[in-house]
UniProtKB/TrEMBL annotation:
It comes from the Archaea. Residues 35-69 have a biased composition (Low complexity). The lineage of its organism: Archaea, Methanobacteriati, Methanobacteriota, Stenosarchaea group, Halobacteria. PANTHER family: ENDOTHELIAL DIFFERENTIATION-RELATED FACTOR 1, ENDOTHELIAL DIFFERENTIATION-RELATED FACTOR 1 MULTIPROTEIN BRIDGING FACTOR 1. GO terms for molecular function: DNA binding. Keywords: DNA-binding. It comes from Halapricum desulfuricans. Residues 94-110 have a biased composition (Basic and acidic residues). This is Putative transcription factor. Residues 34-110, 146-180 are annotated as: Disordered. It holds the Pfam family HTH_3.
């Protein structure tokens, strides 16, 4: 038996769904809150099921967690796409990456701001971690400094969590306080 990572309920067949950018193992009841994740067996890429089978030509072979897809009027139907599916996450150490690349290029904050056509105060806030770069500013910084600000180059950040439950795993219920 596996615990649902949303509600903590024991389930024998968990569903893998993507909810606001995070892939979770959830029970059937919580699966309706996200987009079902299916893994193709012929490749290592992960596909996200949106309820309509755009890549397979056989009808009726797709499985969705909920069968209520009658509200779609333009032929898309099925489950809504998660807006976080195609988003690149900014690395947690983006501020250090920006500062070290700027210093390596021997640029002041004002010079970098002038090269990017941005304000120096924005560069200061980015380097102090006070604000996240917009997509446009992120592209400018990556191009100007020759760095990558996307998440993925340091995957060991999640190893500092330790479990407080008997099964050795955290659920959202362990971390979040409900306001009922």
């Amino acid at each position: 038996m596996v615990q649902c990572e949303m509600c903590g309920k024991e389930t024998s067949s968990p569903n893998t769904v993507k909810i606001e950018g995070a892939e979770l193992q959830v029970c059937d009841e919580c699966a309706e809150f996200g987009t079902e994740v299916t893994t193709e067996q012929s490749s290592t890429s992960t596909k996200y099921s949106t309820g309509s089978s755009s890549s397979s030509s056989t009808s009726g072979s797709t499985s969705t967690a909920s069968g209520s897809s009658s509200s779609g009027g333009s032929g898309g139907g099925g489950r809504r796409r998660d807006m976080f599916d195609e988003m690149d996450e900014v690395a947690q150490d983006y501020d250090e990456r920006i500062r070290s690349a700027r210093e390596a290029a021997d640029l002041s904050q004002e010079d970098l701001a002038k090269n990017l056509n941005e304000k120096a105060s924005l560069i200061r806030k980015l380097e102090h971690g006070e604000t996240l770069p917009s997509d446009d500013v992120q592209r400018k910084l990556e191009r100007e400094l020759g760095i990558d600000l996307s998440e993925g180059s340091t995957p060991d950040e999640d190893t500092e969590w330790e479990s407080g439950s008997a099964s050795g795993e955290y659920t959202l219920g362990d971390v979040v306080e409900r306001k009922d």
